[in-house]
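#lab-general

N.A. 3:47 PM
ok so I finally got the sequence cleaned up, no stray characters, all 237 residues accounted for. can someone with queue access submit it? mine expired

B.Y. 3:52 PM
send it over

N.A. 3:53 PM
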Amino acid sequence: MHIFYTPDITDNSYQLNEEESKHCIRVLRLKPGDKVNLVDGKGGLYEAVVSSDNPKACWLNVVAKTQEFEKRNYYLHLAVAPTKNTDRLEWLIEKAVEIGIDEFTPIICHHSERKHLNIERLERIAISAMKQSIKAYKPVINECVAVKKLMESVNQQVKLIAHCNDENKELIHNAYKHGQSVLCLIGPEGDFSLDEVKFATDKGFKGISLGNSRLRTETAGLVACHSFYFINQNSIK
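B.Y. 4:20 PM
back already:
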């Protein structure tokens, strides 16, 4: 089933923009009466049919609605230091959205190799992954922010920082319980600085380990994302 992102849908009829209309009619070759799905990024999933095959202004009629489609029982805010190669960070965002994430923040750390990102491009990747994985919620993609500033402003129930320092750290399943809202920080390839880890600890963050392997930034982010997914899925009876 073809899926279109329609964030401003409010009525039982909707006109796709020119780009999406062209894709719908010229590329997908859909005709009046063909069925499509729409997602608004806020939990709404709509079943619709093509009513007009104008390649510049395709109209759709909504025939069924589902609100809070597959709403998760937890809130995941993943904050990751941008990788030097942006392709790797974009890959992480794509996969994290497919698994399930609510908010993503690029964090600038002492050892960061990159401090600027094209947020509009990350938004497009998130939307594409949302549609591909049949999700109805679009995660918030925030602008880059200094890691200490983020540490001071978060309000998630659980605050975790994955780092490589030799000290007692908990595994995720010991530091996090299903159904909780959580912020998890993933550092750059050079890891968080000692000062950043201490600052986080003073702000109530728990240090966690992602296992014995030394992971790349994007791999660490994906491992964390899937761990929260698994803990919450495993709790569903």
